[in-house]
Write a structure and sequence with these properties.
Helix content is 45%, strand content 14%. By secondary structure, the protein is α/β, with parallel strands linked by helices. The N and C termini lie far apart (35 Å). The structure holds adenosine-5'-diphosphate.
């Protein structure tokens, strides 16, 4: 009885944040993870850049290598989600078909499109990468010299140039509540 209560109220899912570099994926994942952890939910973060330093060390930025990286992240995310974890993935994940493939295997999923116009991202240039890419010092840079395929029907669409971080978090929490995954988590 006790176990079944936990399973029904705490079933896992994969929340997949996709978007260009600097759009706000990592910032949102960290903030959402903190809120959910403070409310007692089991949460794990999988960041594309971090995974590239471990599980995907040595992979490059060809379509094949990018897809391999995303499939590895998807595999781990889905395993965790099956065990009740809320898995927050932040990865550029530029290819629509590959995102659809890994999310199709998730027990439950939310696809979150994190977006800001390219000129805003170039102005933010959080990691200094856009300046380098525009000077031609980084090849295959998504949005500049490599493709990005935006989701056609994301579950949540966040324009981070138009919405504040707290507003974005409200949209994410509302989406989790609609799925009956999270109940009454709020922030100031
Ligand atoms: P990504 O993980 O997509 O590469 P980051 O989260 O590292 O992007 O960087 C996003 C930058 O945009 C941060 O400097 C963050 O403070 C800023 N930002 C401004 N508005 C927002 C917002 N509404 N949501 C998330 N990030 C925002």
């Amino acid at each position: 009885m006790f176990v079944s209560t936990i399973l029904t109220t705490r079933s896992g899912l994969v929340v997949w944040f996709t978007g260009l570099s600097g759009a706000g994926k990592t910032t949102l994942v960290r903030a959402l993870a903190t809120l959910l952890q403070e409310a007692g939910y089991p949460v794990e973060q999988l960041d594309g850049d971090v995974v590239r330093e471990h599980l995907s060390k040595g992979l490059g930025f060809s379509r094949e290598d990018r897809d391999t990286n995303i499939r590895r992240i998807g595999f781990v995310a889905n395993l965790l989600a099956k065990h009740g974890v809320i898995v927050l993935v932040s990865a550029i994940s530029p290819y629509r078909e590959t995102r659809a493939e890994v999310l199709a295997a998730a027990p439950r999923k939310l696809e979150v499109f994190v977006e800001a116009p390219l000129d805003v991202l170039i102005q933010r240039d959080v990691k200094g990468l856009y300046a380098k890419a525009l000077r031609g010092e980084i090849a295959q840079f998504t949005g500049i010299s490599d493709p990005y395929e935006p989701p056609l029907h994301p579950d949540v669409h966040l324009r981070t140039d138009l919405m504040s971080l707290p507003e974005c978090l409200d949209h994410l929490l509302a989406a989790l509540e609609r799925l009956d995954i999270v109940v009454k988590v709020s922030h100031q």
